[in-house]
Specification:
The chain is mostly helical. It is 79% helix and 0% strand. The protein is flat, with a radius of gyration of 22 Å. The termini are far apart.
């Protein structure tokens, strides 16, 4: 298991966004997902990373074996949907790995090293804490509704839409509002608005492993760009 600087993780996100913008969906997308999977495992987020990789593999199998068998509206709809998913999937998967392996204190210390304005850091820090807290509240609501015999499956929603709305949407909206207020109050109590420069006991700095990980991703995107350009030139030549 390894640890890397939060700033390296942000650089990887930027590289992955460039990859999604520049490289068409294909073999290089699978290679990129493999890189993210290996990174997630090395960072200690094994189960959820493997789950995301298996889901991508299942979608890829659908695009290769199921999609060609369809025609008409079904083919067009599935093609557009899969195209959007494959474009966004690397960024979302890497973002999940980064959020799941980065503590808020590490993120704040890294941003302080980069002298990022507090107007940017504070909303991001609250966002890092907000979604995990909301997910925890969702689990509590789901368990409470299960005791009342209410399921959130599509079939149950189709049969009892009003019950699911009352049992799910209203509690989650109220909980989300309360969670946002509690996190804001907690951040203010901890002095997040203090204008003086923050100190940290964390040793945040670039190491050899950071350079190696970033270099691997950079080499991969360069090879992908060259390979894609060469393929397009060969197609035009023919």
């Amino acid at each position: 298991m390894i640890t890397i600087d939060p700033r390296s993780k942000l650089i990887l996100i930027f590289i992955t966004v460039l990859f999604s913008m520049l490289i068409p969906t294909g073999t290089f997308t699978c290679i990129w997902i493999l890189l993210i999977t290996l990174l997630g495992i090395l960072l200690g987020r094994v189960r959820k990373t493997l789950r995301a990789a298996v889901l991508f593999a299942a979608l890829w199998i659908v695009s290769v074996y199921v999609l060609p068998q369809l025609d008409g509206t079904a083919h067009t709809s599935l093609l557009v949907w899969l195209g959007l998913v494959f474009k966004c999937y690397p960024c979302c998967m890497l973002a999940g790995v980064i959020i799941g392996t980065t503590q808020i204190s590490e993120f704040m210390a890294a941003m302080a090293k980069w002298n990022v304005p507090r107007e940017v850091v504070i909303p991001l820090a609250i966002m890092f804490r907000y979604f995990p807290a909301l997910k925890e509240d969702w689990g509590h609501i789901k368990d409470a509704m299960a005791l009342r015999g209410i399921s959130f499956s599509p079939l149950y929603f189709f049969k009892n839409p009003s019950v699911v709305i009352d049992a799910l949407y209203l509690p989650i909206l109220v909980t989300a509002s309360k969670t946002a207020d509690e996190l804001s109050a907690s951040a203010i109590t901890r002095g997040i608005e203090n204008p003086t420069r923050r100190t940290s006991r964390l040793d945040i700095k670039f190491r050899l492993i950071d350079g190696a990980v970033v270099l691997i991703f950079l080499i991969t995107i360069v090879v992908a760009v060259i390979g894609t350009s060469s393929g397009q030139l060969m197609e035009k030549a023919h």
